[in-house]
Amino acid sequence: MTYQKAFWELKKTFSDFNDGLIYQILEFLSGENKTWLIENWEKPMTNLAKFAEIYKLLLSGYPFAYISKNKTFLGHDFYVDESVLIPRDETELLVQEATKWLKQYPDCKVLDLCSGSGIIGLTIKMNHPGCQVTLSDLSAPAQIIAAKNAQKLNLDVAFLTGDFLEPSLENHQKYNLITCNPPYVDKTDKEVGASTIFEPEMALYPPDLSQPLYFYEILFRDVFKIINKGKPFALLLEFGYDQKEKIEKIIFRTSWLKGSNITFFQDWAGKWRFVKIEGELKE
Ligand SMILES: C[S@@+](CC[C@H](N)C(=O)[O-])C[C@H]1O[C@@H](n2cnc3c(N)ncnc32)[C@H](O)[C@@H]1O
């Protein structure tokens, strides 16, 4: 089978894969880049057994990112495996907004809460090396992956391991920017992506399944305790495509947020996906 034939075979079978992903699969198989593939389109593939093996895995719904152990996020390659959520493209928008906010406050303290593979905090550190960035997650295996990514990208960041806000509270840490992409998936939702069956449950679902916004309730109740007072702060928080109204309700009944600027953002598909809350708390 030629590379060209393999391309069309993948395209026909996996109609939801875009061309970029199919090229990534062929790049992974050949060990060559896209230019080489196009120049050698008519050449027979040398590793048909590997192609067959990957094809079978993909047919079972197994995500390509776990096969290649890589996910590109805002142009940088991050190591991923089954101990972490596969970073979603829409999270790039949240990180771009964080990067924009930090232009005004380039050397402040940043917390990436529920950090997983580290994509949010590590990309922020790359864009603003003057910031002190902390990555916090309950999952020790996820923290190992985040540390591996920090080392690979040569980034000096701090790590906290523990339950949500607890490690920051215990260590009396205060931050100006807090990003958070917590587990918020509703288990009854039929629209969740196919990859979720292979991803860690604790990265997707809150501990109380009847309460998808479990982490938001805790966050809005307690996060002010870890915000640096007397200085501008921002919270950038990702949520599910159908959760904006519920998040709004929690925000509007949170008294310490009165007077803050609140902006909701949509993804490329026009779905509401994250909120930015800016303000300053009195000392
Ligand atoms: C939706 S994933 C986000 C991962 C990464 N920030 C991203 O955007 O790809 C949620 C993360 O929250 C972590 N997590 C789950 N329960 C937690 C808890 N109680 N405290 C801290 N982190 C938790 C999971 O281990 C997982 O890494």
Describe the structure.
This protein is α/β, with parallel strands linked by helices. The chain has 2 domains: 3-60, no CATH class; 73-280, 3-Layer(aba) Sandwich (Rossmann fold). The chain is built from 12 helices and 9 strands. The chain has helices spanning 3-13, 19-30, 34-39, 48-59, 64-68, 91-102, 119-127, 140-152, 166-170, 201-204, 214-222, 244-252; strands at 71-73, 76-78, 109-113, 132-137, 158-161, 177-180, 232-238, 261-266, 272-280. It has a 7-stranded mixed beta sheet with strand order 5-4-3-6-7-9-8, covered by helices on one side. Strands 1-2 form a two-stranded antiparallel ribbon. Helix 1 packs across helix 2 and helix 6 packs parallel to helix 7. The longest helix has 13 residues, at 140-152. 32% of the residues are buried. The model has no long low-confidence stretch (mean pLDDT 95). The structure holds S-adenosylmethionine (SAM). S-adenosylmethionine is lined by residues 84-85, 87, 91, 114-117, 119-120, 137-139, 142, 163-164, 181-183, 202-203.
Name of the top-level CATH class of the largest domain: Alpha Beta
Mean pLDDT: 95
For the largest beta sheet, what order do the strands appear in spatially?
5-4-3-6-7-9-8
The CATH homologous superfamily of the largest domain: Vaccinia Virus protein VP39
- The helix/strand series, from N terminus to C terminus, equals HHHHHEEHEHEHEHEHHEHEE
Largest beta-sheet characterization: 7 strands, mixed
User: Helical content, roughly?
Assistant: 25-40%
- Stretches where pLDDT falls below 50 for ≥5 residues? none
Instruction: Write down the Rg.
Output: 21 Å
CATH architecture of the largest domain: 3-Layer(aba) Sandwich
Shape: elongated
Protein name: peptide chain release factor N(5)-glutamine methyltransferase
Catalytic activity: L-glutaminyl-[peptide chain release factor] + S-adenosyl-L-methionine = N(5)-methyl-L-glutaminyl-[peptide chain release factor] + S-adenosyl-L-homocysteine + H(+)
Domain Methyltransferase small: 92-191
Organism: Entomoplasma freundtii
